[in-house]
Design a protein that fits this description.
Chain lengths: 481, 452
């Protein structure tokens, strides 16, 4: 394995991270939080120092870089990023336990939004900003950022990085150059985030709150800056957030096609259609199920839509405590947790595209048992999907289920109820945030033991990077010479 | 610049590698998804699966926004249809087609506009021409000419009895009694840019720049015997052999051609009435001896298999054939072949790529763009020819006062019809032609790139 090249990449990533800590420091300064500011500066300095040492050590790296290096590099980078990213919380003593600080930042970078904080509002503004900003960075990916804005010379190996970091069963480039592809993705991302901030400002939200919420929405993260998430805001702000959550759950390729004015291709996209269909059906089903809990149909639909959007895009904001809703609604939301957003979006979960592939391959297998000699291909948008992609989707499902149950068993050692444990794993693994009962929208993850927190951290990373980049780190053949 | 490469074979993939290194936007089309994904993993390019001659596939590859299409599939007909279709979709498009069948040569030339071909390349014909020029100037392993033939970079091998053995480069000019410049040395597979105190050893391959007029002096003073080539043995009867034999027969050289396939032999015999066509296996020693290996002036191994070519050439070398030329289809194997006594090595693929890269660079149309590019020293070094124009920096400044970029060597300046090997006091003026050599491939694209 090419350790030097990987070291250089990690050095670059830490450099970017150190730079991104500075805005949070500036915000602390603006709000007069001297202690927090120093902790940010110190963390940035430590990160920068490590990054420079890594870059120095890894000078003159050979350029051989293959799929294996790509996967390992992405997995290690995310772990390193989280280890350094939690320093500001820990150094400023705002989150005194290291494991808690680590959990919080992993939850941030993986856009999960599960918190160990009993009370959010007492946190300093700088720390709140860093939490939300970590969502925004993690949403599109730091490596993609690196590919877009640094002069890493574009040869083919960058494809391994993009594939390892971007979600979806079939990752490809938009344009021939990797750098242009990454730039286009980030520009769309930035533009949508800015539009979201403007809409929130129009609704009378304070600038700082608007920026933090927009970051949380864009990365489909879910860290709020209020104890009751978005419940205290006006219906307009909640509706704006609903719409933007759904927008960030759409494959970013669709936005690129819109920019190219290929409207037909966007509206004919099977995944998008299915996504919209699932969202509509779920909103309707839940609204019918919970009407009566609220005064008017309008309010009912608003809450139903917000919760559905929040869960399917794996954001995790809440306007209502859905833990108090009837079982049917909770069941629908749990299904949505697994489905997740579209491939190529900032959301997590299994992804609509993968679900669709799995269903199509299942349907084919059933037909095949009825008619063993029948030859049939799986199609997506009228294109034939290669057998390798179908096979990978099946393997992914298997890995997904195994990890889900293994984590569930490990978490259960803490003695919470079955529903709590299961939804806690679901919420972390699918990068959502809140689960049910003891980890419901109004509660938090503080009660778990250190072991459980570590398992959940791992689940969050596994979920964000789609399992394999983290899983290969535990494989002996990865480290074998 | 947006470039589409249709057909991802040997030429297609090495083009993709070279052009993506130079920073162009590349889209590859191939009907084989596996081949396609291999290249997409390796280079920064995007792939489209499908038949490159069909309109929807071309549209999917973005032909409307493309500036150049290179059709390099294995079939001439597909290449032609691809170019014609693409040009119909985008009239601004430049097209390069690889057309190899000799039967089409005439109509391609006459009907270029109908097929909408900006350039047609024929690797085999180019290779044949290259071999022919090597045969005309025996004594050198490779010979690249610049400045309309006034300057040459030639390759010499330092053998045990060579006068260059254990010679320091400072004293080189007094041995060869004319001004030459060593621009690269290939030792143990690595290209070295030598300094003045560098000492040549046995087994080195030396790349020397000299004015063309000095070449014969160079050969004479190195005691390299050159006799005119009168009898040539060709092993393998592919397209290169056919083109080459045709030309050699025209020049009055006696040609014997050994081919293993009987039907092909009949074909060749009817196409080449003056050549001796022999049906047999070229690896068969007694057959080679029987047909004059001992008294021929040159042996050229041109079979389809690189390994066979290497073996035949090695054998010919041990038998003391004065000039041996080997065709290699996979020049990646250079690291092996560099250490073998294979004589001159010709790679049709590299030659073809060089031509296309030259065309692409000319299209970029920057001021002071490279006029021609040659790869030497086993593909590790590039020699680039530039024309000095009014935008060139350091006009008229003596070279000792100019700082060149690291790894760049200025090897010749041609004023009018006189070629000068530059010294510290030389300077170039507008209208001159200069040749620069660099070990960083693709780094010299316009003349001002040579300066630090």
């Amino acid at each position: 394995m090419n350790y030097k090249m990987m070291g250089r990449f990690m050095g670059n990533i830490l450099l970017v991270e150190a730079l991104f800590m500075l805005p949070a420091g500036i915000i602390s300064l603006c709000y007069g939080e001297v202690n927090t500011m120093w902790s940010f500066l110190a963390s940035a300095a430590i990160t920068l120092a490590v990054s420079l040492i890594l870059r120095l050590l890894c000078k003159g790296a050979p350029s051989a870089f293959y799929a294996k290096e790509g996967l390992v590099c992405v997995g290690l980078s995310w772990i390193a990023m989280s280890l350094f990213g939690c320093l500001p919380f820990w150094l400023s003593k705002e989150i005194p336990l290291f494991i808690d600080a680590f959990f919080e930042i992993v939850s941030g970078f993986t856009t999960t939004g599960s918190s160990i904080l009993l009370e959010v509002e007492s946190l300093s503004k700088g720390a709140l900003f860093w939490r939300s900003f970590s969502h925004w960075l993690g949403g599109m990916g730091v490596l993609v950022f690196l590919l877009a804005f640094t002069s890493e010379k574009g040869s083919g190996f960058t494809m391994h990085l993009l594939r390892a970091e971007s979600p979806g069963p079939n990752v490809g480039k938009l344009v021939p150059k990797m750098r242009s592809t990454a730039t286009i993705l980030y520009l769309i991302y930035i533009a949508l985030t800015v539009i979201n901030i403007i809409f929130l400002l129009c609704g009378g939200m304070h600038l700082f709150e608007a920026v933090c919420h927009a970051f949380g929405t864009a990365g489909t993260g879910g860290f709020g800056i209020k104890n009751d998430s978005l419940a205290g805001y006006s219906p307009y702000l909640q509706n704006v957030t609903t719409v933007f959550m759904l927008l960030f759950g759409i494959n970013f390729n669709c936005y690129y096609l819109l920019l190219l004015r290929q409207f037909k291709n966007v509206f004919k996209d099977e995944e998008l259609r299915l996504y919209v269909g699932i969202v509509m059906a779920s909103i309707l089903a839940i609204a019918v199920n919970i009407h009566g809990l609220y005064d008017s149909w309008r309010e009912t639909v608003r809450h139903s839509a917000f919760q559905v959007a929040s869960i399917i895009t794996t954001t995790g904001y809440a306007t209502a405590d859905f833990d108090l809703w009837p079982s049917f609604s909770k069941a629908v939301l749990m299904c949505l947790m697994v489905v997740g957003a579209c491939a190529g979006s900032t959301g997590g979960g299994l992804k609509v595209a993968r679900m669709m592939l799995l269903f199509k391959s299942l349907r084919r297998n059933i037909r095949k048992t009825l008619n063993p000699k029948k030859v049939q291909v799986v199609r997506n948008n009228a294109n034939v999907v290669s057998e390798l992609v179908v096979e990978n989707a099946n393997a992914y499902l298997a890995a997904y289920v195994i990890i889900l149950f293994a984590s569930f068993v490990l978490i259960s050692l803490d003695g919470f109820s079955v529903a709590t444990n299961f939804t806690a794993v679901l919420a972390c693994f699918n990068n959502i945030g809140p689960g049910l009962e003891a980890v419901g929208p109004t509660c938090n993850f503080a009660g778990f033991s250190v072991l459980s927190k570590l398992v959940l951290c791992l689940d969050m990373l596994l979920g964000r990077l789609e399992i394999f980049p983290i899983l290969v780190l535990f494989s002996r053949s990865t480290w074998k010479r | 610049m947006n470039i589409i490469i249709a057909g991802n074979g040997k030429v297609g993939s090495s083009l993709a590698r070279r052009l993506s290194e130079e920073g162009y936007n590349l889209t590859l089309i191939d009907s084989n998804a596996d081949v396609l994904s291999d290249v997409c993993e390796d280079c920064d390019v995007i792939g489209v699966e499908g038949n490159c001659a069909s309109m929807p596939v071309l549209q999917q590859a973005g032909v409307e926004d493309a500036d150049l299409l290179i059709a390099a599939t294995s079939q001439d007909e597909v290449n032609l249809l691809c170019c014609t279709t693409a040009h119909g979709l985008n009239p601004r498009l430049h097209t390069i087609g690889r057309i190899r069948n000799p039967e089409y040569t005439q109509q391609i030339y006459a009907m270029r506009d109908v097929f909408a071909l900006s350039l047609s390349v024929n690797p085999e014909k180019q290779a044949a021409r290259e071999i022919e020029s090597l045969l005309r100037f025996p004594g050198f392993l490779q010979r690249d000419t610049f400045a309309k033939g006034r300057t040459a970079i030639v390759e010499l091998r330092v053998d045990r009895d060579s006068r260059l053995r254990n010679v320091s480069l400072n004293t080189l000019n007094s041995i060869v009694k004319c001004r030459v410049l060593v621009c690269a040395v290939l030792r143990d597979g690595d290209a070295i840019t030598p300094g003045g105190t560098f000492v040549l050893q046995e087994g080195d391959r030396v790349f020397v720049t000299a004015p063309t007029a000095n070449l014969s002096t160079l050969l004479k003073n190195l005691n390299i015997l050159t006799r005119k080539v009168r009898k040539v043995l060709l092993c393998g009867g592919g397209r290169i052999s056919q083109y080459l034999a045709e030309q050699l027969c025209k020049d009055g050289i006696s040609v014997s051609l050994i081919e293993v396939d009987y039907n092909r032999c009949v074909q060749l015999a009817s196409a080449l009435p003056d050549a001796t066509i022999i049906h047999g296996d070229a690896t068969d020693k007694s057959l080679l001896e029987e047909h004059g290996l001992g008294n021929c002036d040159a042996l050229i191994s041109l079979t389809d298999t690189d390994e066979l070519n290497m073996i035949i050439s090695l054998y010919a070398n041990t038998r003391g054939v004065p000039q041996v030329i080997t065709k290699l289809g996979h020049p990646e194997n250079r690291s092996i072949s560099n250490n073998l006594a294979l004589g001159s090595v010709i790679s049709p693929r590299e030659l073809c790529c060089d031509t296309i890269v030259r065309y692409v660079r000319a299209m970029s149309n920057l001021s002071g763009t490279a006029e021609s590019v040659h790869t030497i020293a086993g593909g590790q070094v590039e020699a680039v020819e530039f024309r000095v124009d009014e935008h060139t920096q350091n006009l008229g400044t003596p070279l000792k006062n100019i700082r060149l970029r690291e790894g760049v060597l200025l090897v010749s300046i041609t004023h009018g019809s006189v070629t000068e090997i530059p010294s510290g006091n030389s300077a170039f003026l507008e209208g001159d032609t200069i040749v620069a050599v660099t070990s960083r491939r693709g780094s010299l694209r316009q003349i001002n790139d040579i300066f630090a």
